[in-house]
């Protein structure tokens, strides 16, 4: 009952009120959808704004990260004996304190009715970092264990990295949905801090080892691990940045042009520095120089970090502005949509009300008996079409109004016409309807024309069915004969195709043999060319040998001439020895005549005589040796001349062999060309036979398909003959007037 009462309430509303209510109910969804869209955009804006806050928090942590790493390297070098680094430690500690102050300032800064520290839940972690730093500073000043201090610095660096990741997590940076900002975030939050920390450890370890002129196995293992870690982090940085550049370029950004060169320079310098750790020797190098190069590399990585963070912040601001623009656009479209909806509803309601009022007026006029009344057509919609239909119905109704006598006369004419044409339904086409002057006369005349056309068509159908039956029988006989011939032709083509396949196989074997012969001929040609070259080289070698033999023969001849000169000199010495012996004899005689005074002179004369004898003996041996040398020289000269003649004869024979090999090379080349031509001809013939075989196979398939088609046609012709018989049986029941 309540539903009926509610229906009655709506039934009492006027049409414009109902349409307005529908428009209001329908239009109420627009504000709801708009509110949902605006809510979603505001959520995106809040999400992005929190990312911006996280990006603003990171620079203080980056500075702290840089200075603590530097303090680690300086302390390690100092504890290993480099006293010069001690002077740099206080300035680095002051820089760390300044970085902590900047971190405290950003942590306590107010933002959106809260602070950065409360938003990111980072205040306790910052205080813990300060306490940890105080412990590290105290240990650095009092400890003598460099490894212990280095490890404590590493734990502090790990805590700083953890805080960076914590801020990235709490500020939504890690959840960033876009590829370019995501990979920039990954570089700023994870990869660049890891790479910088690893490079700092490599710098500190090498500085300490060079300062102490020794490196322990533990430090060497740690150095190798940190180098691998640095290379891995650098690879991740480069890969991530490339992906960020590609994604940003795809969206029409210019991130690549801003940061491409900076990325390449930083990665290159870092890798060059890491090469110093390969095959590292603690006794070589300068600790201060290595530390300075490491600081330069980490500074370059810091510049890359700052550029990446700035670009990340810029992209985040662009995205937030895009979200705000989208939100404002949604609100503008919603407002315009509501206004247009209200204006459209007003125009529609006004048009519908006007047309309905016109129809209501027409109905009231008809109720009063005014058959000449017509509705005004105001719109072109369904109501306008309804008004037009009302007017047309009223016009037709006026033309159909007539007397009872006219209706009775028309009914009798129709009954008579029905009696005349009832026999046509039984197939009797000999009857005709009487053509009168009343309303059924035109119908009867049309009916008679239809009967005449049916007579003509049925007669033609009967004649055509006889002709179709005869043609179908003839076609069926021809199709059967054609199928038999097609099958015979298919068998012959199949046999021919098999023969062609066998011929193709034979031609292929011939072609393969020709190809093999061409290969052998080519190899023979190569061998002949190599043999000719070897013979030419042999001829050249024999010519060189002949030249050397001739030169050696000349030297030996000159040696024989010199030996002759030596013989002459020996003969001269022999003569001198004889004269000396005679002089010694004379001197002895003179000494003997001198008595005691000549006794000493006699001894000298005797010694001279002995020397003369020895000289005579030596000259005899030299003379004999010179004669032997001359004889050997003459034999060598004869042998050299004989060898020279043999070399000349060998050169002639080698030249003849070279000419023969050249002729063999020419013949082999012509033979290779001929076999190559045969191989090409065989290959072409093989291709032609394969093409012909394929063509015969295709023709066989076509013949088979044609045979199948003819068989199908034969079946179709049989069906056609059956249909013609059925058609002739169907039209046999019609009665036609006798001709002529």
Explain what this protein looks like in three dimensions.
The chain is mostly helical and 740 residues long. Among the domains are: 51-164, Four Helix Bundle (Hemerythrin (Met), subunit A), CATH 1.20.120; 444-731, Methyl-accepting chemotaxis protein (Helix Hairpins, Orthogonal Bundle), CATH 1.10.287. Helices cover 86% and strands 1% of the residues. The protein has a two-stranded antiparallel sheet. The longest helix is centred in the last third of the chain and has 154 residues, at 441-594. The protein starts with a helix and ends in a 9-residue tail after the last helix.
Task: Please describe the structure with a list of short key phrases separated by commas or semicolons.
15 helices, Helix Hairpins, two-stranded antiparallel ribbon, mainly alpha, 740 residues, 1% strand
How would you summarize what this structure contains?
By secondary structure, this protein is mainly alpha-helical. The chain has helices at 2-11, 15-27, 29-79, 89-108, 116-120, 123-142, 146-170, 179-212, 217-250, 255-274, 287-367, 382-400, 404-421, 441-594, 599-731, and strands at residues 110-111, 114-115.
């Amino acid at each position: 009952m309540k539903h009926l009462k509610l229906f009655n309430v709506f039934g009492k509303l006027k049409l414009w009120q109902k349409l307005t209510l529908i428009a209001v109910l329908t239009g109420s969804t627009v504000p709801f959808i708009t509110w949902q869209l605006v809510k979603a955009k505001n959520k995106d804006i809040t999400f992005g704004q929190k990312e911006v806050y996280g990006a603003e928090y990171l620079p203080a942590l980056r500075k702290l990260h840089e200075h603590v790493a530097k303090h680690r390297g300086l302390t390690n070098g100092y504890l290993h004996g480099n006293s010069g680094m001690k002077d740099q430690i206080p300035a680095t500690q002051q820089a760390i304190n300044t970085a902590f102050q900047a971190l405290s300032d950003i942590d306590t800064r107010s933002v959106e009715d809260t602070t950065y520290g409360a938003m990111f839940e980072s205040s306790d972690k910052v205080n813990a970092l300060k306490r940890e730093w105080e412990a590290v500073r105290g240990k650095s000043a009092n400890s003598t264990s460099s490894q212990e201090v280095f490890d404590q610095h590493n734990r502090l660096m790990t805590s700083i990295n953890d805080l960076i990741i914590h801020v990235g997590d709490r500020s939504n940076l890690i959840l960033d949905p876009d590829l370019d900002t995501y990979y920039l975030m990954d570089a700023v939050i994870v990869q660049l801090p890891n790479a910088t920390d690893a490079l700092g450890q490599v710098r500190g370890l090498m500085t300490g080892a060079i300062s102490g002129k020794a490196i322990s196995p533990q430090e060497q293992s740690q150095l190798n691990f940190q180098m691998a870690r640095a290379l891995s982090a650098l690879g991740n940085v480069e890969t991530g940045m490339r992906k960020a550049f590609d994604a940003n370029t795809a969206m029409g950004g210019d991130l690549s042009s801003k940061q491409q060169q900076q990325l390449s320079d930083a990665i290159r310098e870092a890798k060059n520095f890491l090469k110093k750790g390969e095959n590292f020797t603690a006794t070589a190098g300068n600790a201060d120089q290595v530390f300075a190069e490491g600081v330069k590399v980490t500074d370059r990585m810091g510049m890359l970090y700052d550029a990446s963070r700035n670009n990340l912040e810029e992209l985040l601001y662009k995205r937030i502005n895009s979200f705000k623009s989208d939100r404002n656009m949604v609100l503008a479209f919603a407002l315009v949509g509501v206004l247009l909806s209200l204006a459209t509803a007003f125009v529609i309601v006004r048009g519908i009300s006007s047309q309905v009022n016109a129809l209501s007026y027409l109905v009231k006029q008809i109720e009063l008996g005014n058959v000449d009344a017509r509705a005004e057509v105001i719109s072109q919609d369904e109501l306008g079409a309804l008004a037009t239909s009302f007017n047309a119905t009223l016009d037709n109704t006026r033309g159909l109004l007539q007397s009872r006598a006219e209706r009775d006369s028309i009914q009798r004419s129709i009954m008579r016409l029905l009696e005349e044409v009832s026999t046509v339904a039984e197939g009797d086409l000999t009857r005709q309807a009487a053509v009168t002057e009343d309303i059924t006369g035109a119908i009867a005349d049309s009916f008679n024309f239809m009967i005449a056309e049916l007579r003509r068509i049925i007669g033609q159908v009967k004649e055509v069915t006889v002709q179709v039956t005869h043609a179908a029988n003839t076609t069926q006989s021809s199709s059967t004969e054609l199928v038999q011939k097609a099958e015979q032709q298919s068998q012959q083509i199949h046999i021919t195709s098999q023969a062609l396949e066998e011929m193709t196989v034979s031609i292929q074997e011939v072609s393969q043999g020709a190809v093999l012969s061409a290969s052998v001929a080519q190899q023979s040609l190569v061998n002949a060319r190599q043999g000719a070259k070897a013979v030419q080289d042999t001829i050249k070698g024999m010519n060189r040998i002949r030249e050397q033999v001739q030169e050696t023969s000349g030297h030996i001849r000159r040696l024989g001439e010199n030996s002759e000169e030596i013989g002459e000199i020996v003969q001269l010495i022999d003569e001198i020895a004889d004269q000396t012996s005679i002089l010694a004899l004379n001197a002895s005689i003179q000494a003997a005549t001198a008595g005691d005074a000549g006794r000493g002179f006699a001894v000298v004369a005797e010694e001279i005589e002995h020397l003369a004898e020895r000289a005579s003996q030596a000259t005899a041996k030299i003379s004999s040796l010179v004669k032997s040398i001359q004889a050997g020289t003459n034999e060598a000269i004869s042998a050299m001349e004989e060898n020279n003649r043999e070399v000349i004869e060998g050169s002639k024979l080698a030249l003849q062999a070279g000419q023969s090999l050249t002729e063999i090379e020419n013949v082999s080349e012509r033979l290779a060309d001929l076999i190559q031509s045969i191989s090409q001809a065989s290959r072409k013939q093989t291709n032609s036979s394969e093409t012909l075989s394929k063509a015969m196979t295709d023709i066989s398939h076509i013949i088979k398909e044609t045979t199948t088609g003819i068989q199908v046609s034969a079946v179709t012709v049989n069906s056609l003959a059956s249909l013609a018989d059925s058609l002739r049986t169907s039209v046999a029941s019609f009665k036609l007037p006798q001709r002529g």
